[in-house]
Amino acid sequence: xxxxxxxxxxxxxxxxxGGGAGFSSSGAWLRALLARHALLPLRAFLGxxxxxxxxxxxxxxxxxxxxxxxSLGETLRQVHDTAALPLLVDLGQKSPVGFxxxxxxxxxxxxxxxxxxxxxxxxxxxxxxxxLSFWLTVSWATTPYYYGNDLVYLxxxxxxxxxxxxxxxxxxxxANRRKRHGTKLFG
Length: 187
Known about the structure:
Elements: H1 28-36, H2 40-58, H3 72-79, H4 86-94, H5 96-116, H6 120-137, H7 149-163, H8 170-186
Helix pairs in contact: 2-5, 3-4, 4-5, 5-6, 6-7
């Protein structure tokens, strides 16, 4: 049986809740448990934030307009001359409404992917790409640079891009299933 002797701490070298072999103090198992789950708050924050941002954009008629106060078209016109990549702004200006829908749907897909842990690294890559494009266009001229939030979001995506979504995720469930079936077939 694969799971017969598992308990909290057993998968990090301990024998159970009280610590055990490999742990010098009774709190070491808790530190190891917390370390394994350290990315969950970041994952929850980024997932909820990007999901909310996408829904907010889709439900805001002013944002999804060619022009006017609060529209993506107007925002793109305002940042064109100060953007690091004005070519990206030009691309968005060709169809601000279509670009707005693409941003909103992309943010929702990234948010759901990270929250569910479905293709976690790909979702994190999408979030990093969205944040990078916002930083290089909309918030590039923000001074000092640390006042702009898009660079911070870009940096926040990097740990999830590197580590994926290894806990409480569809990715982890699928990996465990493959591992279980592989053990039965070849072990």
